[in-house]
Amino acid sequence: MKKLFISLSVVVACLIFCGCSVLNQGIAARVETTDIMEDKVTEAVQQYRESNNLLDDAKWKKYLNDSKMTAYDFRDQILDNLINDEVKNRIAQIKNITVTDEELDNQVSMAKSLNNDTDFREVLRQDLINEKVAKTLVADADLTSTNIGRTMLKYSDKFNGSTGYYQIIFPSDKREQATNVYNNIKSGKVSFEEACTEVTSQDKTGINFDYIIYDCFIENPEPAKTRLTELNVGDVSEMIDAGNYIYMFKVVDKIHCSSPLTRLSELSDFTQRNIEMYAKIENGQNIYQTEFDKYKNSMYIKKFIPPANLSYAV
Question: Which residue(s) pair with 31 in the sheet?
Fold first, then answer.
């Protein structure tokens, strides 16, 4: 009996240190103290197959072959996504980021879905958390620490004192249509943003450029520049005839940066989006990924050996 007891102890010790035994059966990965269960991975794979018309095993096998993947490769991709979601959840805890029921209800409403079951709402909740985490990490990042951050600093300095606005543009031969849209905005029948959407979706001759930041987009005629700089946040300009095009603007931000600027959180959401957009175009990097990786690399993350026979391995 003593010999048997010792043998069992050795086996248990080996299994614990190897991390690949029945002691961890059913666990796909662990992020800090949170376990991601294999059933959750399988469910996510199943949902992917359903949404992409791949429930038929022959279609699924062809998809994997065309993608040069095995079922285990696909499982790893799904598992990586689930791990990243859990990392974001932990960042949300650190940053005190939450999603309210009201925000979730609005998301369901915007999706125009009548599906209010718990699983569906949890998917939307995770999406909202992910979005808020990304926004917060970019806003709170030390811009001096990365190349893209330094590019953002350059643009924030360039745009300091500028006016941020939405604009709608019509060709000059669409003056009647432009006038109708302008009158509807000024009378309060539609908001400027609603008019932007209507113009771009229903009439391809109207062009909406959102999120453009310049001191003034129109340099000529000069009076246009004066009129724009005199507007306050929320004001809508008059119709501006610039020759080949007719413009109307809504001021959404007056950009004032501290010097030196170190964090985008000092700026409005509008200005943050624009500065990041310009920096990405020039720099080709993503400050969010840099910040996210810092948090992820600081966390304990372990993947366990997958089951020998996956239900979706064909």
Answer: 34, 301
Residue 237 CB neighbour total at 10 angstroms: 18
The dihedral formed by the CA atoms of 304, 309, 312 and 314, expressed in degrees to the nearest 10? 130
**pLDDT reported for residue 144:** 67
At a CB cut-off of 8 Å and minimum separation 6, what does 47 contact? Answer: none
- Helix ranges restricted to H, 160-283: 175-187, 192-202, 222-230, 269-283
Q: Whole-model pTM?
A: 0.56
Q: What is the dihedral of CA 250, 253, 254, 256, to 10 degrees?
A: -160
Please name the helix (run of DSSP H) or strand (run of DSSP E) that holds residue 214, with its range, or none.
strand 207-214
Q: Of the candidates 235, 153, 134, which has an alpha carbon nearest to the alpha carbon of residue 186?
A: 235
- 221: cis peptide before it, omega within 30°? yes
Cβ atoms 261, 153 nearer than 8 A: yes
